[in-house]
Amino acid sequence: MLDASRSPPTRQLDVIIVGGGLAGLYAIHRLRGMGLKIRAYEAGSGVGGTWFWNRYPGARCDVESLEYSYAFSDQLQQEWKWPERYGNQPEILQYINHVADRFDLRRDVQLNTRIKSAVFDSKTDEWIVTTDKGEEIRARYCVMATGNLSTPRVPDFKGIHDFEGKWYHSGLWPHEGVDFTGLRVGVIGTGSSGVQMIPIIARQAKHLTVFQRTANFSLSGLEPCDFALRFLRPSKL
Questions:
Q1: Which pTM was predicted?
Q2: Where along the chain do its domains lie?
Q3: What is the mean pLDDT of residues 2-26?
Q4: Strands 115-121 and 126-131, sheet pairing
Q5: What's the rounded Cα separation, in Å, for the pair 190 and 203?
Q6: Which CATH class is domain 11-144?
Q7: How far apart are CA 89 and CA 91, in angstroms?
Q8: Is 225 helix (H, G, I), strand (E, B) or coil?
Q9: What is the full DSSP assignment across 135-194?
Q10: Residue pLDDT, tens place only, 161-191
């Protein structure tokens, strides 16, 4: 019988991978093929990285689907058919899950696990990584496959935490979705996320106001594209 008061035993690996998105899954495939003992740790309850977390209305890739696909397998490229030129979030997440299943990558992914610390031990030339579950892992290499969009930044607007209505961040969107029917809505920002969500929210909301600091130019897979471009011009709507 295990003693619950004891810390779990230290896991020894060759490579620790932090993140289960596109980069993390490819790292599993590549490093596994080199005969290394690896494991990826993912904070979410599923693989996909950015495409698991970002589920705001209209979310889609801003490069063409074929260019956003894995190129390490010719068979994979031939068998997968993208339904749209610019894949939307559900399509991309479906693709990522297909890859994870096809190459049996899930067995080396530990979900619902956040990394709390990563310290390099110069005496043993190893990384010592601890998780929020109290686990300790040692490995010669640590691959940070967290991406540059893994930590959403909430703007420091005065009074935002005292706002009595509901507010949402595109990178922290509720997975059950949001119904804006009959509501007055404000969208702050017209970057890629703003351009994609504005037309969708406009169809639902009673009234939509877009707050834009700087007019942008965007070539997008949105339909209709000219609708998105009109939002980006500094003209009165």
A1: 0.83
A2: 11-144, 160-232
A3: 82
A4: antiparallel
A5: 17
A6: alpha beta
A7: 5
A8: helix
A9: -EEEEEEEEE---TTSS------TTGGG-SS----GGG--TT----TT-EEEEE--SHHH
A10: 888 889 999 988 999 999 999 999 999 998 8
